[in-house]
Amino acid sequence: MLDYDKEADAYDATRGGEPRAAAAAEAVLGLVPRNARSLLDVACGTGIVTRRLAEARPGLRVTGLDAAPAMTRAATARLPGAIVLADSRRLPFPDGVFDAVTTVWLLHLVEGPADAGAIIAECARVLRPGGVYITTVDKAAAHDVGSDIDAVLAPRPRRPAQDHRDDIRAYAAEHGLHPAGTATFRGHGQGRSPRSTVVDLHRGWFTMLPPGEPLTERFAAQLESLPDQERPRADPEFRILAFRKPSSDFRQPPAG
Predict the structure, then answer these.
(1) 124, part of any domain
(2) Gap between the Cα atoms of 34 and 153, Å rounded
(3) Any idea what DSSP says for residue 176?
(4) Residue 209 DSSP symbol
(5) pLDDT at 10
């Protein structure tokens, strides 16, 4: 996994910057109830999306949280006094204090199902009854846009996707959350070019392809033989899911 303390300085520039952040924030806010008054952005990173969430809804009190000190420093510069350094598996908040909780580009990073489940359990715990949990899903799959780059990389070894939508729905149901909507947004500026993909290979972006290994170098050589080395291929399309925590007067409909 990448070291996100080291990634902090270049994070925004290498991941679509403000255009991608604007698209993500708009999609997320489309699923946040208009009467929500508090939102927790878990794994807020540099705060580039978090700030937009706060600016778009002046009546929404937004708190960001991240486990990487360099990321929280960057986020604090954007939202002073609103950023917390903490582990997403152990949120430092009481039960039922937020109207909305988001995890944007987090669950694909975790090591296994136990961590994904623990994060969702914590998000559900700190939600108020009637609150909404919103998360990105299927991130790695979104980057496969059917390009010549994807054809070259198709046989590479892959980590199991911990953010597969079906798994996330199952974890949410386990913790009492019910489907409440879905949306997509464009990953502006994240279309891969052959040249940028080789750079990513050499810096360990593809976690199952360590830099310098023979297999990694074979993929790099194949990518270097593709045409239009500097031309980005299509941008990915990311998906988000929303889940609602039942209100105290919620009644599950009878079976049958």
Answers:
(1) yes
(2) 42
(3) T
(4) S
(5) 54
Taking a C-beta distance cutoff of 8 angstroms, is the pair 14, 190 a contact?
no
Residue 208 in any domain: the answer is no
Cβ pair 60, 25 in contact under 8 A = no
Domain region containing 132:
4-143+159-190+235-244
Model pTM?
0.89
Count: domains in the chain? 1
pLDDT over 50 at 256, yes or no = no
Query: pLDDT per residue over 78-90, tens digit each?
Result: 999 999 999 999 9
Q: Which two tokens stand for residue 32?
A: 């946040």
pLDDT in tens, 194-209: 999 999 999 888 989 9
- pLDDT score for 186: 94
Q: What is the CATH number of the domain that holds 126?
A: 3.40.50.150
Using CA atoms, how far apart are residues 142 and 84, in angstroms rounded to an integer? 29
The pLDDT confidence band at residue 19, using thresholds 50, 70 and 90, is: confident
Cβ–Cβ under 8 Å, residues 219 and 151: no
Does the residue 204 lie in any domain?
no
Q: How far is CA 65 from the centre of its chain?
A: 13
The verdict on residue 211 lying in a domain is no
